[in-house]
Amino acid sequence: MGIRFVLLVNKQGQTRLAQYYAEHLTLDERRALEGEIVRKCLARTDQQCSFVEHRNYKIVYRRYASLFFLVGVDNDENELAILEFIHLFVETMDRHFGNVCELDIMFHLEKAHFMLEEMVMNGCIVETSKSNILMPIQLMDKAS
Amino acid sequence: MEQLKTIGRELAIGSHGGWGQSKEFLDLVKSIGEARSKAEEDRIILREVESLRRRIAEPDVPRRKMKEYIIRLVYAEMLGHDASFGYIHAVKMTHDDALPLKRTGYLAVTLFLSEDHDLIILIVNTIQKDLRSDNYLVVCAALAAVCKLINEETIPAVLPQVVELLTHPKEAVRKKAVMALHRFYQRSPASVSHLVSNFRKRLCDNDPGVMGATLCPLFDLICADVNSYKDLVISFVGILKQVAERRLPKTYDYHQMAAPFIQIKLLKILALLGNGDKQASGHMYNVLGDIFRKCEQSSNIGNAVLYESICCVSSIHPNAKLLEAAAEATSKFLKSDSHNLKYMGVDALGRLIRINPDIAEEHQLAVIDCLEDPDDTLKRKTFELLYKMTKSTNVEVIVGRMIEYMINISDNHYKTEIASRCVELAEQFAPTNEWFIQTMNKVFEHAGDLVNVRVAHNLMRLIAEGFGEDDEGAESQLRSSAVDSYLRILGEPKLPSLFLQVICWVLGEYGTADGKYPSAYIIGKLCDVTEALLCDDTVKAYAISAILKICAFEIAEGRKVEMLPECQSLIDELSTSHSTDLQQRAYELQALLCLESRAVESVMPLDASCEDIEIDKNLTFLKDFVQQSIENGATPYIPESERSGMSNVSNFKSQYQHEASSHMLRFEAYELPRPSPAHVIPQVSVPTPIADLFPVPETTCNSETSQASKLPSVAGASSAAHGIKLHLDGVQRRWGRPTYSSSSGPSSTTSTEKTTNGVTHIDGVGSQSRDKLNESRRQQPEVSAEKQKLAASLFGGSAGKTEKKATSTQRAPKGNTRNAERPGAARSRSPETSKEKAAPSVPDLLDLGEPNPTSTTIVDPFKQLEGLVGPTPMPSPLDNSVKTSGFETPDLMAAAYTDLPPSGSSSGSLSSTTRDMYSVDKTSNTATSVPSIKKGPFPQDSLRKDARARQVGVTPTGNNPNLFKDLLG
User: Fold this and answer.
1) Whole-angstrom Cα distance, residue B473 to residue B489?
2) CB contact under 8 A, A101 and B921
3) DSSP structural state of residue A62
4) A74 touching B, CB under 8 A?
5) I need a surface site. Which of B6, B207, B440, B852 has the fewest CB within 10 A?
6) Please, where are the H alpha helices in B430-536?
7) How far apart are CA B713 and CA B718, in angstroms?
8) Per-domain residue ranges for chain A?
9) Which pTM value belongs to this model?
10) Which residues form the AP complex mu/sigma subunit domain (chain A) (predicted)?
11) CB distance B144–A13 less than 8 Å?
């Protein structure tokens, strides 16, 4: 288990996508956790590390326009690789949506989830080829 | 204008209509997007939940509508509102025949339900059915759900099918089946223990995606049992070599690195396999060397791979050449301007110094910079590094720094961690006992509630036993300095309970020992402690016992104890306390006050806390008394067994055995060790057997015999209950003298003298470093010199850490000789370092205003890929049009799948064919739909209003970052 959760949050701290891998959290736990880490990460400046220690794990985050991508990882995870994983996720969405923006993710929440589902299983990165990630989604689109 | 808006809106809806999204949904998303506060968002969602609750239960909701409802439920839950009323509908949706609906159903279910939710059982059947589906995408969706929903109990229901799918012709299915099996292994290793060989097989899968995924379960398996996988070293090395040589399909490239994520996973696995295994490591040297040579250092991903290589090199059997390369890469990280790379560098350095502590020297200034960086993350990482390199020569500076930092943070999790590290380092490397006490005081004062109770007991023991067999003078000096410091600290508000306990105990034992403070003063202070707001019963017990001790010492000295009014009221209060323990103590104090001095002296001997108490379990000292009583006609003691009519036994051993075999209930514990067969004089009627049958733990005996030792022993018993046993002997050896080697003594003093830079030694060593630090902050121009001195005090004699890390001892003399010249060396190095800093370095990661630096310098990677697929380069507007392409053929899913080419052996050709089809599809649609529709001209005023705020045009390729804005404006 490397990745504990993937969280997309905008500048106002509003959740745009949330996927947990480590355990199923109750609504209250999720609310508390998200509030806590969003406060922590949003308070940081651009010059500071993209990594934050939180409780017994780390959060690797990256900002794209007004959207923050936060990934909670175990302590032995390679932070730089996770940072690039975020970027790969964004690039993949960008390839699918074309100039992806916050609104794209909001309108197509399930698609963003499907892409993540292809990329991460059981908290591990399993697929990093963009065409492999997008193929099932594109086939599904065509079929519907 | 109004009309235009309406047209725009309709167009927007029309364009999304093919996706099954209604105006309602668009409005919902829009209003969520526009919500300016959590409260507003909550209101919107609550309203939404209410309407959904009503509408989702209506009969005959169209399937597409239902899908939308489900996604709206996902929204509600994502934003923190309960949508459990709709779970059942999500479950139902998994039965749907249409793939998008089915997959949405599965997605919602995995998001909603925990794996032990009651509804899961309804889904298992569906999953089983879907795993048998002819449509491989359905199988994939089911496998993804398996990974999230199947718990230990339901594993057997799907396990055979999952195993079968491991050899499915479609690589996507095989990949997901591997991961499902991985999930089962995570959940219940026993359930798949007979199937782990499948992972080995999949490692050799033709498809790189399946192979890459298989690395995840293999990593876990190897973590659990390295030795069973040593045979795979050659395979892993071979795969890594091929990956690094770009033998994988181009689609796995990322920013011109060949399959970096697979490389990283492989490096992690090799690090495990090569750890402490010279032979296995030998196979890896070549490929690791290649990676170091080839690795791109200008991109983040290149550095990620480099970092992983450093980790691997520092884990496997050391190789001089590779270590050199790793050290070089580490130093590049440390010299970088990017905080992220510095962070990785500090971490890498922490790994490398375990093998070669000398590496740290070169980077002392960089490390100091990181330590003083305002970024908490970097600072903590640096503390972790310092923690790893602490030794007796630099412990004062490092622990001083740690405490200073600890005081200023509010994060309890980290505070606990750093406090326990301080304690650990102080116990291990403390140069003097006095320093130890002062350090402990600081830790207690600021994190007392967070440290282990054992630490308090060790501190009390140290003060009580002091230098042990050393001279008395130093011992009493230590105690009075402790008393002084505690009386001072007592003025502080809100001291943690554990610390107050220590203070009370020390004041009770030694408060009046040196005659500096009158007893009334100490008693008054102790009474103050009990009056504090947050004073708990334990502290009160410590305080009243301390008062008792002081009174006892006074009486024993023949002085009259004047009862202070606040003390009297304390006694009154405690004698009516709900706690019987407190009552007992209060009554004991009252009783003691009435005794004469000789009696008091024997009840409560002065400074008896560290006397060894020998327990006479046979109570032989009563022998004379018993004998006398018998002579005077008293009836001899009849053992309990005889009294209860048991057969007469001559010795207790056989009696004990008999008892064990009889069917009487036994009340004593079985496991208590019996020192030796009881050797009791049968004639004597002393209650020995009882004492023998119920061996009393020594601590209880302690408290019976000596009040002075009562408190620590009671506490000791309680800590034993926590599984931590106080070691009653050899504690001294953990601190100070014995570990403080005399050879390193001089070197440490020289270094601290240098750091103080003329500041006189007044306040003891602990404060010196702080003085120096404060000074360094005040004197900005001299910062670099100060830093060098700090560096010298941190890094001086870096190789001397023989106590903690089992590193080569032969380096110690070398390190010591280097000590003297180190500050000079550091100084001479500084210009070079600053030069390095000026050099161009890694681009800022978070600078999003600019196009991504990596993609500006190189060709956009996926543009390249698209070029490979079809001859026509596809500008992004074409991508947009795809969205609209769907709605013309809403029910053609089955047709689409039959259209697919048969699954060929070569996945590459297949994927390219499908992509070709896809691109044809795209181009054919371009004519019919206007690309600009995609971003949806929602001309609603409000959306435009905060368009700037939500201008989320994520464009890593930087083609048209303002597309979103343009369309709206």
Assistant:
1) 24
2) no
3) E
4) no
5) B6
6) 433-447, 453-465, 472-489, 497-510, 519-531
7) 9
8) 3-143
9) 0.68
10) 3-143
11) no
